[in-house]
Structure formats: structure tokens, C-alpha cells
Amino acid sequence: MQSVNMLQAKSSLSRLVDAIESGREREIVIARNGRPAARLVPVEDASAGPRIGVAKGRFEVPDDIDASNEDVARLFLAGG
Fold first, then answer.
1. Where does the record place a coiled coil (predicted)?
2. What's this model's pTM, rounded to 2 decimal places?
């Protein structure tokens, strides 16, 4: 387990994340004033499973679904 101080973590965050992602480090402790403050660990791979097409056939999309696109865009861009 590697331990780094806050300043090191700020200046080398990308390197630290690379070490976690590649498996070179399983955990990195970030310390503030010499005391452990946080742990950098890999994110568990919790696959959500297949999502594309899960609602296929459950509802009908009207042919004019895009009819108000310009109105909606105008509301966002012009602020109302």
C-alpha cells in the first residue's frame, strides 16, 4: 500500500489513478498533515448488463415526436 501526501496527490493524480487501474497498486492512502485522510481504490466492475433495446415493443413512439424540437431548443438557447 502506497501512501502519498496531499500535495503529491494533487500533482500526480493521473499517475496514481494509472497505478490503480493497471493493478500496480491495490490501494493508495492520501494523507493530510501526516495523517491518513482518504483512500484511492479501484472501482468495482458492477456491470449493469445489456441495456440497449430493453424497452423494445413496450411503447409506441408517435410519428411527430420531433415536432417540437425547435421550440425546445429555443427555450434552452434563449432562456425562455
1. none
2. 0.55
